[in-house]
Design brief:
The chain is an alpha/beta fold and 251 residues long. It has a single domain, classed as Alpha-Beta Barrel (TIM Barrel). The chain is 44% helix and 15% strand. It contains twelve helices and eight strands. An eight-stranded parallel beta barrel has the order 1-2-3-4-5-6-7-8, surrounded by six helices. It is globular and about 45 Å long. It starts with a strand and ends with a helix. It binds 2-phosphoglycolic acid (PGA). 2-phosphoglycolic acid binds next to strand 8.
């Protein structure tokens, strides 16, 4: 059984005060949730304060990115050990906003994944095609390239720490969600790639989240798909009510 994960990616939203206020309100509303793991990913500046506010709760903390080096002259970057010290146990890697906005390549994603795993973090590795790639019939090719490049050189044991997120770029922040069937197709393909590369057990165990305009109204249909193990939620994770409704998708 794969335990579902509902993760909120706050992107560049929320001050420290707003982030702490959010989790203080969220905690009691989800205190009894056992059917899924709950994760929030605040901006770097709010990580430590949110970690303190989450102590003793059932909500995990993620960073939105990291640098692969332990330390060094990398202005603006933060390392795996730094985010770990700030209280994170998860880290989002290879989000399309980093790939497209910051020129992040599969090779960089790969170094980040290795650094995160070495530090004992759980990477949430994002892959997904653009609209042009989908329309050109290249979705599976793109997924395979991102998968092979981003996860190159990992052992099956290292891979067992990793979660994946399928986020079609055309569905992120656009209000245009992939249909559950369409998402399930891509998830199935990713699972097949995992089985081929890391063994059948890994393919059965890996959790693959869907991301792209997930809302309280569409989470039920997505989670009904056997292939979909949770959601990486952007916009709808910024309000306590909608994030709670998504967490409670089956209640
Ligand atoms: P969205 O973002 O839910 O606002 O589409 C998802 C994501 O970028 O992870």
């Amino acid at each position: 059984m794969r335990k579902p994960v509902i993760a909120g990616n706050w992107k560049m939203y929320k001050t420290i005060a707003e982030a702490v206020e959010f989790v203080k309100r969220l905690r009691p509303l989800v205190a009894r949730v056992e059917h899924c793991e709950i994760v929030v990913a605040p901006p770097f500046t709010a990580l430590r304060a949110v970690c303190d506010a989450l102590r003793g709760s059932n909500i995990g903390l993620a960073a939105q990115d990291l640098h692969w080096e332990r330390e060094g002259p990398y202005t603006g970057d933060v390392s795996a050990s730094m985010i770990r010290e700030a209280g994170c146990t998860y880290v989002i890697i290879g989000h399309s906003e980093r790939r497209h906005g910051h020129g992040e390549t599969d090779a960089m994603v790969n170094r980040k994944v290795k650094a995160a795993v070495a530090e004992g973090l759980t990477p949430i590795v994002c892959v997904g095609e653009t609209l042009a790639e989908r329309e050109a019939g290249k979705t599976l090719e793109v997924l395979a390239r991102q998968f092979e490049g981003g996860l190159a050189g990992l052992t099956a044991q290292e891979f067992s720490r990793i979660m994946m997120a399928y986020e079609p770029v055309w569905a992120i922040g656009t209000g245009r969600t992939a249909t559950p069937q369409l998402a399930a197709e891509s998830h199935g393909e990713l699972r097949r790639l995992v089985s081929l590369r890391f063994g059948e057990a890994a393919g059965k165990q890996v959790r693959i989240l869907y991301g792209g305009s997930v809302k309280p109204e569409n989470i039920g249909g997505l989670m009904a798909e056997e292939q979909i193990d949770g959601a990486l939620v952007g916009g709808a994770s910024l309000a306590v009510d909608s994030f709670t409704a998504i967490v409670n998708y089956r209640l």
